[in-house]
Design a protein that fits this description.
It comes from Shewanella denitrificans (strain OS217 / ATCC BAA-1090 / DSM 15013). Keywords: NADP, One-carbon metabolism, Oxidoreductase. The chain is an alpha/beta fold and 250 residues long. It has one domain (4-243): 3-Layer(aba) Sandwich (Rossmann fold). It is built from 8 helices and 7 strands, in the order βαβαβαβαβααβααβ. The protein has helices spanning 13-24, 38-45, 58-71, 94-126, 148-151, 157-177, 199-206, 217-229; strands spanning 4-8, 28-33, 49-52, 77-80, 139-144, 181-188, 237-240. The chain has a 7-stranded parallel beta sheet with strand order 3-2-1-4-5-6-7, with helices on both faces. Strand 4 (77-80), helix 4 and strand 5 form a beta-alpha-beta unit. The protein binds NADPH dihydro-nicotinamide-adenine-dinucleotide phosphate (NDP) and the ligand Nc1nc2c(c(=O)[nH]1)N=C([C@H](O)[C@@H](O)CO)CN2. Residues 83-85, 146, 189-190, 194, 205 line the site of the ligand Nc1nc2c(c(=O)[nH]1)N=C([C@H](O)[C@@H](O)CO)CN2.
Length: 250
């Protein structure tokens, strides 16, 4: 059944791949983006509704949320993908680094979920006017976290802490929004390298997993598909990490 899904950070990489895949499967996509790339125009031509917004700007985000509520009567799911992988040694002060990580990975998802939850609940209840049990778990919120939320990271302390906080919100929102809305985390590890990741970095990073590979966006797409089709999974985290937790240094 076609769903209307809001995805944050659709301009490139995983968010862009998710948006294109969901559009190809007949879903309606509402996307937010910070920087404009040709991919944004492409998604618009494919039927997506796209909104420019720096999610760290509270007033700008409030304005976009109000426009989304005015322009879209139906919303079945939210995928919080937007993220800034900021190392601790980045030139900003420690306080600014932590504030920036918490803003994009915690405050923005919190603001979005509280603003749009009534739309998600209404969609679930409308799924079947006769069978109230059909509303159970019919809508979704997905927080894309990171393997390091459970493990920590000595070079991305603020980033990892903010992703751990994002997963904690999965637990809180799952309890708050049940039974109509399911809330789950997807905790990836090595999905896509970045431009500029040299061969030495790639080898070192791949060696950290017992399945040493660059997983690709299809691994995230598969978990999203599963969660969209489930009516009984909530408050959980789905690790997509090549067995990083079983890595043992030689
Ligand atoms: N790639 C990987 O291997 C892994 C990814 N993940 C997680 O998966 C998700 C997607 O990863 P990936 O595609 O690599 O992410 P990227 O860092 O490549 O892109 C994230 C997107 O978020 C947007 N964004 C960043 N900051 C802001 C902001 N302040 N306001 C609005 N949008 C913003 C970026 O926009 P812009 O183009 O303007 O910068 C970009 O489109 C993220 O949550 C990430 O933490 C977790 C583990 C591994
Ligand atoms: N917003 C982002 N978060 C993360 C990225 C990224 O490119 N953007 N990349 C990683 C790494 O792939 C890491 O998982 C390798 O061990 C982590 N988070």
């Amino acid at each position: 059944m076609s769903q209307t899904l809001l995805i944050t950070g659709v301009g490139k990489r995983i968010g862009y791949a998710l948006a294109k895949d969901l559009l190809a499967k007949g879903h309606r996509v509402i996307g937010t983006y910070r920087s404009h790339y040709p991919s944004i125009d492409e998604l618009g031509q494919l039927g997506a509704s796209v909104y420019q917004c720096d999610l760290t700007h509270e007033a700008a985000l409030d304005e976009v949320l109000n426009r989304i509520k005015q322009q879209h009567q139906q919303l079945d799911g939210i995928i919080h993908n937007a993220s800034d992988w900021l190392g601790d040694n980045n030139g900003l002060s420690p306080a600014d680094t932590m504030a920036r990580m918490m803003q994009i990975h915690v405050t923005a998802p919190y603001q979005i979920n509280l603003s749009l939850a009534p739309l998600l609940t209404q969609a679930a209840l409308g799924a079947s006017s006769t069978d109230k049990s059909a509303a159970i778990g019919a809508s979704n919120i997905i927080h894309i976290t990171d393997y390091v939320a459970e493990k920590g990271s000595k070079k991305h302390i603020a980033y990892a802490a903010s992703k751990a906080a994002l997963h904690n919100m999965t637990l809180s929102f799952a309890a708050k929004f049940a039974p109509e809305i399911k809330v789950n985390s997807i905790a990836p590890a090595m999905i896509l390298f970045n431009e500029g990741d040299d061969a030495a970095y790639q080898a070192k990073t791949l060696a950290k997993a017992i399945l040493p590979k660059e997983a690709g966006t299809e691994e995230i797409i598969a978990v999203v598909d599963y969660l969209l089709g489930s009516h009984y999974v909530t408050g959980r985290s789905f690790a997509v990490d090549g067995g990083r937790h079983l890595y043992q240094s030689h």
